[in-house]
Amino acid sequence: MEYRLLGGSGLRVPELTFGTGTFGGTGAFFEAWGSSDVQEATRIVDVCLEHGLTMFDSADVYSQGAAESILGEAIKGRRDKVLISTKGGFRTSPDYNGTGSSRFHITQAVESSLKRLGTDYIDLYELHSFDALTSVEEVLSTLDNLVKQGKIRYIGCSNFSGWHLMKSLAISDKYGWSRYAAHQAYYSLVGRDYEWELMQVGMDQKVGAVVWSPLGWGRLTGKIRRGSPIPETSRLRSQVVIDNGPPVDDEYLYTVVDALEEVAAEVGKTVPQVALNWLLRRPTVSSVIIGARNEEQLRQNIGAVGWKLTPEQVAKLDAASDKPKAYPYWHQYGFDRNPWPV
Q1: Cis bond leading into 341, ω under 30°?
Q2: Are 99 and 90 in contact (CB under 8 A)?
Q3: Residue 276 in contact with residue 337, Cβ under 8 Å?
Q4: Exposure of 55 by Cβ count < 10 A (0-12 exposed, 13-18 middle, 19+ buried)?
Q5: What CATH number is associated with residue 40?
Q6: CB-based contacts of 109-112 (< 8 A; 24+ apart in sequence)
Q7: How far, in whole angstroms, is CA 117 from its chain's centroid?
Q8: Distance from the CA of 240 to the CA of which of 77, 148, 149, 183 falls in 20 to 30 A?
Q9: Shortest CA distance to 236 belongs to which of 254, 228, 224?
Q10: Splitting the chain (342 residues) into consecutive groups of 10 residues, what average pLDDT does each group show?
Q11: Domain for residue 214, yes or no?
């Protein structure tokens, strides 16, 4: 397992992170992901550590907090051997202040996550989304105080736009507060919008990408093909999951899968292993979050590391997954002074 610096920080993280969205299975949305209990989660952590995968990602809204609690039980007695990242900011209660990135809610959310995880510090704490109603100064001063208190080691954000991220970094620099070291972002072979602007901010400002849903919301598992029904075990059987995930045109998906299958046959790997390996070669990517319903799936996903695609294979996947860019990106890429990424 390769270890990479997390953005411009001094923290080294494994190139793969395990996502605990499959822990708990509370509610229709997360039930479709998986429902690992403490026993199965403990075995998953065992396998991860055997392969040098030491970072585990969660969030306070995953299965209404159950994912954090199960992770806390699974790592009991070996907290010093793992890195924990978790997220907050989404609604966790019906109260007026039970959502967002206000000082009130984030402070409360961090304390609750610490209790569920059974630890006194979080290695990487990320805001789950941008809060347009709370000033950036309030958000970052709160996070900086939590770092100074030792409750958080590093801070990050998730699902920000380019200007949200850049404004936040400028405010941190202005006041000497902790900077976002990571941006947890959606990026996959069937979702390359990250490359239009967020990648450029990450390169310029040294913010590492921690990629979520690298298999395109379950579409690049190798089980979804042209002319075949969606497998019974796929999360895409759930309308709740479909409605809350990134949309992908069917014909575009099949074109990408066709290219993945060609490359997979050439390298003797599976479709998801190739899709994950492609991401690990992209600029700014510090770690890619993988999930698994069971030990078998986990071992298959870990097989995405330890080898590299050839430049020709990367070019084939790039071409199959390329899409017309929105303005002003198509215009910027048309200027001969601008190499990729702009």
Answers
A1: yes
A2: yes
A3: no
A4: buried
A5: 3.20.20.100
A6: 109/60, 110/146, 110/151, 110/152, 112/60, 112/65
A7: 19
A8: 183
A9: 224
A10: 98 98 89 88 97 98 97 98 98 95 98 98 98 98 98 98 98 98 98 96 98 94 79 66 80 96 98 98 98 92 97 97 92 85 76
A11: yes
Contact at 8 Å (CB) between 80 and 54?
A: no
**Is 175 noted as a catalytic residue in this protein?**
no
Say how many domains are in the chain. Answer: 1
Structure pTM? Answer: 0.94
In a domain, 326, yes or no: yes
| Residue 115 in tokens | 């209790």
pLDDT of residue 245: 74
Residue 113 CB neighbours (<10 A): 26
Of 85, 78, 60, 27, the C-alpha closest to 241 is: 27
The residue annotated as part of the active site, out of 62, 180, 186, 187, is 62
In a domain, 339, yes or no: no
Domain range for residue 132?
A: 3-333
Q: Token pair 């002074």 is at which residue?
A: 337
Residue 15, pLDDT score: 98
Residue with tokens 């990424």, as numbered in its chain: 341
Residue 341 in domain: no
- CA neighbor of 92 nearest in space, from 62, 118, 72: 62
